[in-house]
Amino acid sequence: xxxxxxxHLELLFEGQSQHDAVARAREAGVTTMVTVGVDxxxxxxxxxxxxxxxxxxxAVGIHPNNAIEATEHVLRRLAAIARHPKVVGIGETGxxxxxxxxPRVRQEDSFRDHIRLAKELDKALVIHNRDASDDVVAVLTxxxxxxxxxxxxFSGDAALVEACATNGWFLSFAGNVTFPNAPALRxxxxxxxxxxxxxxxxxxxxxxxxxxxxxxxxARVMLTTAQLAELHGMPVEQMAEVTSANARRLxxxxxxxxx
Length: 259
Fold this sequence. Notes:
Elements (H helix, E strand, L loop, with lengths): L1 E6 L10 H10 L2 E7 L3 H13 L3 E5 L11 H10 L5 E10 L7 H18 L2 E7 L2 H11 L5 E3 L6 H10 L2 E4 L9 H9 L5 E3 L21 H11 L4 H16 L8
Parallel strand pairs: 1-2, 2-3, 3-4, 4-5, 5-6, 6-7, 7-8
């Protein structure tokens, strides 16, 4: 049984059906998915999606590239929808020094507000980090990060792996860990503590090899799981069990039926 800890069922590309994507995931053995908002509108939609499907949960937040939207009014509305019982995470939030879709000061202010909301509501914190590892860790340290924190689509180096291991932060790997040109990312994944590993698709983006460049979907989380299993020298079924158990701890998810 597989768990996709980070997908965007509200942002599927034209021609993709949310219903069909969920059905294919079920057929592939993906029992649990967390669909993640990137602004207020998609966050509200993620909650509606989670309410519609068994085994689908939501995270709500304002992506750092949308941080200009994170006004006091919007954050109050976000806090209200975050109280829905199927919301298990706050984010994705964090810092993006690659695209810089919003001014850095607005990104940091929004990030701090999300951290405080996650702690207030006792939800997992879902982090977006792009070329900003040192600053992300500094803010998390300053704000005393929630006990349950995950680096979505992990892209850091050995120093960030060590920081995560030291602080008990989860590391979520996406399809890019399978790319032939990503040996450094595979080294990071191999060094990550198994008890902190989770897996995601980030669909409809980052489709794993050999589907790179195609629209991604939750069913393909098994390919990334297989890559992590190879790196850690264990059967893929075992890695699926381990990462699913880790996801349940991270998001406080119930065990799937039959478990």
